[in-house]
Specification:
Blueprint: H1 7-14, H2 18-23, E1 30-32, E2 36-38, H3 41-58, E3 78-80, E4 97-100, E5 103-109, E6 115-122, E7 128-132, H4 139-158, H5 169-184, H6 188-202, H7 212-224, H8 229-248, H9 276-285, H10 288-300, H11 304-308, E8 315-316, E9 321-324, E10 333-336, H12 339-348, H13 372-381, H14 391-402, H15 407-414, H16 419-447
Antiparallel strand pairs: 1-2, 3-4, 4-5, 5-6, 6-7, 8-9, 9-10
Length: 448
């Protein structure tokens, strides 16, 4: 009884005017003799969940005098920014701002000219909040995001715990992909690709019913299918992130991945270190452009994608540095340019042709997207087996360790987020040392 809301409180809960609550006969309510109608927050939330898709489908026809959640609303439910009156939030500067009783939405252009929607509302303590509506690409989606945000503020203010509807893995995976991965992750397509296999395994099993046992069965199936431990770790990392997001959104209380440890990748790194003899043969069989790419890879440890997208404005020839931005872990790093690399870059400057990129397609002027075919052909001509372009990055890290660089310096140069990843190169170097010592033993046996 204490959690029941009055019509005024229900209106605040639904982000509408009290008259809207009175007029809408479809709203679930409880008639209490001598008191009148009261509204259960859980029932209202369920009503919204059941009807939100219905209203979203009507959104293209939504006008400035309609609300997103309820079908019958007063004319003053929404005001355009060029209308007079209203609160501080209603004082809009441009027509790209739309004001509501619970806040406002507005647009801004990014540096690339893309329109981005923002929310403007107040938190439970009355502080003004202005933030991007990450999942919104249209006005209607921004309105929905505003209602969701202010609904959470209401919950916090009145200490209300809302029940989330039951949701299956397949359905939730699409929510994760659209509302999280595609918004904050540049590698979202990788998530999308891996998600296909996860969906095939878990289907639309209710999210709350996916327990540790189900996950361990999935891991066992991937091992049986021949996946490496590092590949399985990537699936586990995605599951862990998805379940954490489900907790944030109220679909779960606990992450079933919490007690499941990832495999150690220290002994399973597929490293193929390029020897100096192989390097000489590879250089001899490579085209001028491919040779330059290989030189950069072996002297910077940069990933191929970063090399192919390398711009002249990232290179400071006076200070002999390369700035690598938008890296995998979201941070920028600066790599010193040694003499070998300096000479190679200086040679490339003669081919600049006023293009921003160092390696570009002659026809389009855009950066190259791959050198896989050329690299494989060069390896074949040089009689080098089992070498991938990414192994040149491994070679860079291993050579630094071999020649006395401390592990923290190597971590920084390679842009590793965790030193544990860099330690794999240390392990690889120890293996190479042992093989070298074993060669001495073999020579001694020949003599004796």
């Amino acid at each position: 009884m204490n959690n029941l809301l009055t019509a005024k409180e229900a209106a605040e809960f639904l982000n509408c005017h009290p008259q809207t609550v009175y007029r809408n006969e479809g709203l679930p309510s409880i008639d209490i003799p001598g008191i009148g109608k009261r509204y259960n927050p859980d029932d209202l939330k369920e009503y919204i969940e059941k009807n939100k898709y219905k209203y979203i489908s009507k959104l293209p026809q939504v006008t400035d005098n309609h609300r997103i959640i309820l079908t019958s609303t007063p004319d003053y439910g929404i005001r355009r920014s060029n209308e007079s009156g209203g609160s501080e939030m209603a004082k809009a500067k441009t027509k790209s701002r739309f004001n509501f009783g619970n806040g406002a939405i507005y647009t801004r252009k990014t540096k690339k000219g893309k329109i981005r929607w923002y929310l403007d509302y107040k938190d439970s303590e009355g502080n003004r909040i202005q933030r991007v509506a990450a999942s919104a690409s249209t006005k209607e989606e921004a309105v929905y995001a505003l209602n969701e945000a202010t609904s959470k503020v209401f919950d916090e203010k009145h200490n209300i715990q809302r029940r989330k509807r039951k949701i299956g893995f397949t359905e939730f995976s699409q929510i994760y992909l659209k509302d999280y991965a595609m918004v904050v992750k540049k590698s979202w397509k990788t998530d999308q690709s891996r998600m296909t296999l996860l969906i095939d395994n878990f289907n639309n099993t209710e999210l709350r019913k996916i327990n540790q046992s189900a996950i361990r069965k999935f891991i066992a199936l991937r091992e049986k299918a021949g996946n490496t431990q590092s590949t399985i770790n990537r699936y586990m990392a995605l599951l862990r992130k998805m379940f954490n997001y489900a907790i944030e959104e109220g679909y779960l209380e606990k992450n079933p991945m919490d007690q499941i440890k990832s495999f150690s990748e220290k002994d399973n790194l597929k490293e193929r270190i390029l020897t100096e003899d192989e390097e000489a043969r590879l250089m001899k069989e490579s085209s001028p452009h491919l040779k330059s790419i290989i030189v950069i890879a072996l002297n910077t440890g940069m990933r191929l994608g970063k090399i192919l997208n390398l711009r002249w404005d990232q290179i400071d020839m006076d200070n002999q540095t390369i700035k690598v931005d938008n890296t995998k872990n979201g941070r920028s790093r600066t790599i010193p340019v040694n003499d070998t690399l300096y000479k190679e870059i200086d040679k490339l400057k003669t081919q600049k042709n006023n293009k921003p990129f160092i390696f570009f397609n002659e026809e389009t002027g855009k950066p190259l997207t791959t050198v896989k075919t050329a690299f494989k052909a060069a390896c074949r001509r040089a009689s080098i087996e089992g070498l991938r372009m990414h192994d040149l990055r491994h070679t860079f890290g291993s050579r630094l360790i071999q020649r006395g660089a401390d592990i923290e310096t190597v971590r920084s140069l390679m842009g590793h987020n965790s030193i544990a990843i860099t330690q794999r190169y240390l392990h690889s170097t120890e293996t190479l040392k042992r093989k070298s010592v074993d060669l001495l033993s073999a020579d001694h046996e020949k003599i004796s």
